[in-house]
Write a structure and sequence with these properties.
Elements lengths: L1 H13 L2 H15 L2 H5 L5 H9 L1 H10 L3 H18 L5 H9 L1 H14 L2 H47 L1
Helix pairs in contact: 2-5, 2-8, 4-6, 5-6, 6-7, 6-8, 6-9
């Protein structure tokens, strides 16, 4: 009976429109390497990587209703963006092998199926995501302080020259 419920739940999740979009994105961006090809245009590869993760985030957060899974999906997406930003086409070559959408789709499928290894991996990546997000927030606050301080310094420098 428990197996029947699990299979029924999996079938309902897999027939969802967001799931179909995720499989299409995975096919075109990872299997046909469009992520790496679009990444050759500076900035656009990162934008495409971030936009392509939205159905995965929606599915994991609102359909599966798992915050750890959503954090793990975001962790993979942020890694993909970070790796894709490496200059001199190195990031584009890495994009060919990283395949973040495939990893996210496999992680979601394993999580829905109740695969213990995948669930353990999701929980580890979720914890990593929390630590990384806190670090990034700290960096953002630090950057804002630096920019405000630099702006105040420039203002005082210009005001002293004009006075």
């Amino acid at each position: 009976m428990n197996e029947t419920k699990r299979l029924e739940r999996r079938q309902n999740l897999m027939s969802n429109k967001a799931y179909r979009i995720m499989t299409i994105l995975t096919r075109y961006l990872d299997r046909y390497y469009l992520d790496a090809i679009i990444g050759l245009i500076p900035g656009w590869g990162d934008v495409v990587a971030l936009v392509s993760v939205l159905p995965f985030v929606y599915f994991s957060l609102f359909i599966v209703k798992s915050i750890p899974l959503t954090l793990a999906v975001l962790n993979n997406a942020l890694r993909d963006v970070l790796l894709g930003m490496i200059p001199f086409f190195i990031g584009d070559v890495i994009d060919i092998f990283h395949c973040a959408n495939t990893k996210n789709l496999n992680m979601i499928q394993g999580f829905v199926d109740g695969d213990e290894t995948v669930i353990k991996q999701v929980n580890q990546r979720a914890l990593q995501s929390v630590v990384v997000l806190l670090f990034l927030l700290l960096l953002i606050v630090l950057m804002m302080w630096v920019l405000i301080s630099f702006g105040a310094y420039l203002y005082s420098l210009i005001a002293s020259v004009l006075a």
